[in-house]
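Second attempt. The first submission of Metallophosphoesterase had a stray character pasted in from the spreadsheet, which I only caught after the job came back as garbage. Lesson logged: always re-copy from the clean sequence file. Corrected sequence (278 aa) follows.
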Amino acid sequence: MKRLAHISDLHFGRINPQVVDGLLRDLTIQNPDLIVVSGDLVQRAKPSHFAAAREFLQSLPFPHLVVPGNHDIPVYNLLKRFTDPFRLYRRYITADLSPFHVDDQIAVLGINTARAVILDFSAGRLNRTQIARIRDVFDPLPNHLFKVLFTHHPFLPPPDAPDTRLVGRRRLALPVLERCGVDLLLAGHLHMAYSGDIARSHPQAARSILVAQASTATSTRLRGEANGYNLIAIDPPCVSFQVRAWDGHGFTDGPLSDWRKDGDRWSLLGSDDATPPT
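This time the job returned cleanly.
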């Protein structure tokens, strides 16, 4: 079995320091094999914000993979935004915008969906080169590996908001995800925690793919949910998603959902739909 901690939308520059300290304590207790950080490390792409984010990442006691989000791109400095949008991210966080981890049980790939040159730069999308990378990375891997793709922008809308904008060119990517056997999609951006099957909003899907969205881990920019992150237990053919939610003093168990794969389909075995504390 492998345990992933999925954290997202840290937003250094607008964080709750008590929550940051609590998150580090809880991650140490939970002892995940790998931490996945799905973007928006900072509130504004300023050196001081990135320096704080780097200090946090360096304090993580476990291996971690990171991709940027739209907040990691300059907003007001248009010259930097259009000429070198990820300069500070590369300088302070990592030069690798598509990190990859593989071991004897799991394969995890990150793809950068943040874009600086579209009209609404808060939106995200994939390009054909990135879709080809997904294929080239996952296709040669053996079938027994559990394959995880993580991005900042979501593939699946919240259950109560089906019209939410999703990552662009997802329909172009979906057949590739299916063919190369991706099992799980992780993302953030919406500051909402939920999980489900990609087939729920993509009826053309030939096989089901699990999705887990993470709320904001440390930011004060809450959207009706407490700060939280996902603790994911991968024990094929079963996967469980446990939300760890901030209760004002520490991170505690929030909603839990358990899934089992039979053939090409994931089935929900049980779910605790309790709302995390706010």
